[in-house]
Write a structure and sequence with these properties.
single chain; mainly alpha; about 0% strand
Amino acid sequence: MQTGMINTAHVASSAFAVQSRNGRPDFELADALKKVSPQQQARAQKTATDFEGMFLNAMFSQMTSGLKGEGPFGSTTGTGVWRSMLTEQYSKNFANAGGVGVASEVYRTLILQQAKTVRTA
C-alpha cells in the first residue's frame, strides 16, 4: 500500500472506491465507512447506482425524443415504447458499468449522512 492511500478492501465496487476525491485522499469518507455497517454500505451503493440509472434514463430520453425518420429511433407507431425500453436498458448498463460520476457522489453523501446519525444516536 502506498503512503497516503486509503485501504478500500471492504468497498465492493471500484466505482465507489475511497482512494481519492479531487486528486486527494478522502479521509472523511474513509472514517465514515468505519462507522457504517457493510449492509448499509451495500444498500447505499445500490441506491446510488439506481439513482444514477434514473438520471441517465432521463438524459437519454431527452436525447432521443426529437429524432425522426425510419429505423429504431424513427417516429413510427410502436417505436415510442421500444425507445423507452431501449433507453432504460442503456441507462442501467451505463450506471452499472461505472456511470458518469453521479453515483459515487450520491454514495459519498449517503454514507456521510448515515455516519452522522450513528454518531449522534
